[in-house]
Amino acid sequence: MRATTxxxxxxxxxxxxxxxxxxxxxxxxxxxxxxxICGSDLWAYRGEIPRERGQRIGHEFLGVxxxxxxxxxxxxxxxxxxxxxxxxxGVCEFCAEGLTTSCEHGGFWGGTPGSDGGQAEAVxxxxxxxxxxxxxxxxxGDDRLLTALLTLSDVxxxxxxxxxxxxxxxxxxxxxxGDGAVGLCGVLAAKRLGAERIIALGRHTARTDLARTFGxxxxxxxxxxxxxxxxxxxxxxxGAHAVIEAVGTEQSMATAVGIARPGxxxxxxxxxxxxxxxxxxxxxxxxxxAVRGGVAPVRTYIPELLPDVLDGTLDPSPVFxxxxxxxxxxxxxxxxxxxxxxxxxxxx
Amino acid sequence: MRATTxxxxxxxxxxxxxxxxxxxxxxxxxxxxxxxICGSDLWAYRGEIPRERGQRIGHEFLGVxxxxxxxxxxxxxxxxxxxxxxxxxGVCEFCAEGLTTSCEHGGFWGGTPGSDGGQAEAVxxxxxxxxxxxxxxxxxGDDRLLTALLTLSDVxxxxxxxxxxxxxxxxxxxxxxGDGAVGLCGVLAAKRLGAERIIALGRHTARTDLARTFGxxxxxxxxxxxxxxxxxxxxxxxGAHAVIEAVGTEQSMATAVGIARPGxxxxxxxxxxxxxxxxxxxxxxxxxxAVRGGVAPVRTYIPELLPDVLDGTLDPSPVFxxxxxxxxxxxxxxxxxxxxxxxxxxxx
Lengths: 348, 348
Fold this sequence. Notes:
2 copies of one chain form a homodimer. Chain A has helices at 41-45, 93-96, 128-131, 143-150, 155-165, 181-192, 205-214, 224-234, 250-258, 281-287, 298-310, 329-337; strands spanning 2-8, 11-16, 28-37, 55-56, 61-68, 80-83, 86-87, 107-108, 122-125, 133-134, 173-177, 197-201, 218-220, 240-245, 260-268, 290-293, 322-324, 344-346. Chain A is of the alpha/beta class.
């Protein structure tokens, strides 16, 4: 089969690899119908996160179960399924608590060496019963819906995790740092959780326009100290109850802390990279600002978010603004790296 | 009257100052019956937190109301009262939310220039109605109880804040970094909130013995990586659900993060000082560890904690192991600085 592999920074290829296959009794093989490129894939693409030479890449996909191991009982060949970006056994202590990203048998497609990646024709799914979520079969015929459902694999659940970490409650003022797909999904999630006011920080009009469509009530185009000042002006000097941080750089974290209201929280889901962490401890301390987040246990959130995606209440599909086939994946990376594409949909 | 003043690092004096007096209509003057020296006073004493020359010091006290301004209605001369370590108006948006430390009219005894300090014969209390809490008059005759009640001014409420920030719940495994008075009060608070297991980190036998008396089930004497390994061994490799950080250094914060269980939280109340913050963002991110805390709004906690102190369920009074009069305050600082005293009680 064909799959995307990363050989060195910026050297990404689509090449022939051994077919995905059942290796353990709990495995399933999923033929990919939709995959996509994540902002966090860019860190590997740019060499900021180490990867082995030729390592697979891509961790967001949905598709049809093609084969299952003898111990799999939750999904059957032919089922339409979505995979969260990490696999998990579904039965360990952490999975039982909903923290599937800390599963004792868990792993991360493309990140765990030896694993398959989602930007491919097919994927071997370990612990299929714990990992995969079955979708209604008729969704396969609805192109828009299928694209929306794909966001359950990462960006929608990650935006939701940030909103939960930030403590978004009905009536809250929320600020969202980052106008990428996760930030935009954070806007959707904040609105869904009842935020009264949602301030989106971003400078790309196409993205901030989308943020408004998704529920943002205000847009702040400034950066750094000017952004902090702008949000403070919008909030009577107090800052936002809940801040969603969806970038992961020192500057974005510093901005997030700077615009949080005393007693508020920063819900962070931007993969940390770079040298500093941007956390001003004096500010956090004096203002009792909580910092809460991390890698999102999206498997846990899928059952909660799925009904809203199915009935159209929640439609993140507009975050995709470029579609490629498998051969077009390298072009997709280049477009996202250059920020000419917001998020790339892959139809193998 | 006489009050403690700080003139330069290690140059602490007890000297004649103008009498505490009502200056604003909402003020009260409190004659100090009990005060004490806080671990955080040492940062000012050592010059690690800047202070003006001759600035007052001390922020923990209880006493008897001597005089009130015309707008004070909540307390009357003769009332026995305890003051939290910050004053607050009790009516602003933040006070209404319980975040009295972010009060729009708030301040910090000894820290806000021009304010009185608690290590003195008397203290001017701004916003007396919002700030002071009346205690039963007969407590004045009970030396042990009076000392226990004094901890409501800071250390008990601060330990409680850390436990709340760390998310202590019934059945939780809690680890406490710091064997000072706040850490020990964190042990008490964790036990009160239903912790099943409490691991106290500390090397001073007298302090860790007290931690056991307060409810600690295990003691870890190691530091740094060895402490992390020891706590992991005690918790089946997982770490503690809730970590109370009561020191404020880079090393203590790093230890706190290192011993937290995935999905857990660090409740931090150690005043941050030093260059680094000890937060390993990759660890926090991968394990979804929350960092939540700050300057404790102890005014808000007093009504909740007071009944348990009055009925003896909660008795932090053993944290005091040295008693001085006002003239003995400089000796008290020296003893705490040298760690020969755990916490110094001042009877002016």
